[in-house]
Each structure stands twice: as structure tokens, then as C-alpha cells.
């Protein structure tokens, strides 16, 4: 290659490299900070929405606390239209899948539901307890459960009824303890749920197990001993859905208030 052509290629390479580098650098965090730090710090909504995305997709893994700057964001999300809309979308996707299943009629086509933040909303409790930002108090939460006043999540209630109409057997699998069975049944009925196939709560032998292990074992029992085919599983925690004996499809409802392993 002659020197003239070499110089031309070198100049073009530098120009292209500069353009590409500039386009990448423009989206790096340090460039946003150096541009206008006050704007970055003021815009907590962007940070908190990205944080919520991270926990909902399980990219964050185990997490313990809502970032202090995101408490107000979580409150606005839970009380606003976005939470309802996200829940509606999960229910719509669930029903779309359910409609692809050929129900055999033998009573073994099952769908599993978690209860808290899935069928029932504990938002009235969390409204006075920092929307998950406070340290969890088992005593006050148990007192809330005993009231049996948790409302239904509208999207979940609609999905629940549609699945029953299609012929699915609905198995309710909750992390609540066996001593809370009466209050839980009462609350479910008052909220509009009925005719479930089974309501499974933690027994004495389940105490101390992680939610993922406990729920995996119960799903396996239903498959092996009950003969159920678990087509769908709905829950607000990844521990409701992951592990073994998983459903054909699992559907994660939004919950930025707390994480249960």
C-alpha cells in the first residue's frame, strides 16, 4: 500500500473510532454524572425504575432493603396505575398461555397460585409499615392476617375465575403457617375466591425451609402423589416459581416491597 493510501485509511479509521467511542461514552454513567450531577441525583425515578427492573427480573438476586431514595418511588408505584397495569399484563399473558392447554377432563390439569401479593393484597398493611422499608414484624403481620381483610388483586381474581371456567384445578400454595388456615380461608372467600382444589400451608415439618425448597417439595408431592399436571404457576416471589417440579410456565407478579428466598 502506498503512503498516500495508508494515510487516508489511518485518518478514516481514527474518525470512525472517534465516532464509535463517543457514542459509547455518551451512555456511560460517569459521563452522565460529569454532565450535570444535580440532574442525576434529582432524578431518583430513573434510578429506582432501573432498580425495580433489576429485582423483578431477578438480576439482583437476593436483596434485603429498598434503597432509601426509592421508598417514595415504591409507594407511588404500589398506589398508582403502573402496579395495576403491570398486574393486568401478567394476568393477560397467563390467560393467553392457559388457552393453549388442552384440558383432558380427568381433573388433573392444575394451576398453582401463591396467596400474599398474588391473590390477596397486603397493601393496607404495608401502607402503614413503610411499603416494605421497615424491618418485617412477624407479630403485627400475623395480627393483620387474623383480621382476614386483605382485598383481592383484581387482575388475579379475574384470572382465577377464568382458569376455573377453562377447567383448571386451582391449588393454593402459601408460605403462611397451618395455624393461619381458618383466617386465610375466610379472607379468600370474602375477597371473592372459592372452589379451590387444595389450600397448602406450612406444617411443622416445613418450618425452617426456604420458600423455594418448601414450595418445590409441595409441587413435587402434587405431581407424584396427586397425579397433577402443573401447567401454570403464579407468584410474586421468584421462590414461588423456581426450584424443582416447576410448572410448564411460571408467571411473576410485581412486588418491589420485599424479597423471600
From TrEMBL:
What is the annotated signal peptide range for this record?
1-21
What family does the entry list?
Belongs to the APS1/VSP family.
CDD domains associated with the record = HAD_VSP (cd07535)
Which Pfam families does the entry link to? Acid_phosphat_B
Q: Which organism is it from?
A: Macleaya cordata
What InterPro entries would the database entry show?
Acid_phosphat_B-like, Acid_phosphatase_pln, APS1/VSP, HAD-like_sf, HAD_sf
Alphabetically ordered keywords of this record: Glycoprotein, Signal
Q: Which GO terms describe its molecular function?
A: acid phosphatase activity
State what protein this is by name. Acid phosphatase (Class B)
Q: Does the keyword Signal apply?
A: yes
